[in-house]
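Hey, why these numbers?
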Amino acid sequence: MVTIKDVAKAAGVSPATVSLAMNNNAKVNRKTKERVQQVAKELNYIPNARAKALVQKSTKMIGLVIPEIANPFFSEMAQAIKDALIDSDYSIILCGTDNNPKLETKYINMFKSGLVDGAIFSCLMPTNQEFVLDLACNNIPIVFIDRPGVDEKVIPVIKSNLKDGAYQLTQYLIGLGHKKIAFIGRIDEERFQGYLQGLQEAGYPLRKTHLFDHSFTYDHGVEAGKAILQSKERPTGIVCFNDEV
C-alpha cells in the first residue's frame, strides 16, 4: 500500500507538503501542487480518509436514516439524495432501522461521534427525539423528510402534501367514472382526509365497508385485497396509502 511518505519521497517534498497539495491548500505553489498530484496519481496513492477529514474538518459524508431499505419509496429517495450529493463531492451513509429503536439509537450515536457532516432522517422513534435534538445542539445539521419533526424551530422538515396527493388520486378515479372508491391505509392520517374531501366534493357517500384501516406494509395490502375480493359490495376503484400497499 502506497503511503504519504512514498509520495513525498518520489516528489521530493515533505509529507506535510503532500498533505497540503492533495487538499489543494493555497500554501503550496501551483507547480509543486501539480507535481505532487501527478506523482500521487502515478503511484495510485489514496489519501487516508480520517487524516483528510481532520485536515479539512469535514468528512464529506451525510447520514441518511430510513425505516426500510427494501421499500421502493425509501430506496428511490436514497438514490435521489445520493445523486444530488455526488455533485457536491459528498457521499452517503445509508442506515436502515427496520423500525428498531435500538438500531436507530446506534446510528444517532455514530453520527454524534463525528462520522458525518450532517444527517437526514425519514423516520424517528419517540424515544430518540432527545438524542436527535442533542445532535442539532452539537452543530450537526439535520433535516427531516416526510416525517413529523422534533422541533421545527430547531430542525427543518421537508414534507410532501399528503392530503392533496390523496385528494388528486380520488379526483382522478372519480373522473374515470368511479363512484365506489375504497381507501386502504390509516384513517387517522392526512391521506385519508384528502380521500374524504374528494368524495365529499363529488357528493359521494363515505362507505364504511370501503374503508380498510390498515398500516402501510405489503402484508397489510394483501390482507385488504383479500377482504375486498370476499366483499359482497366491491369497490371499483381503490386509493392506497403507498406503493407497498
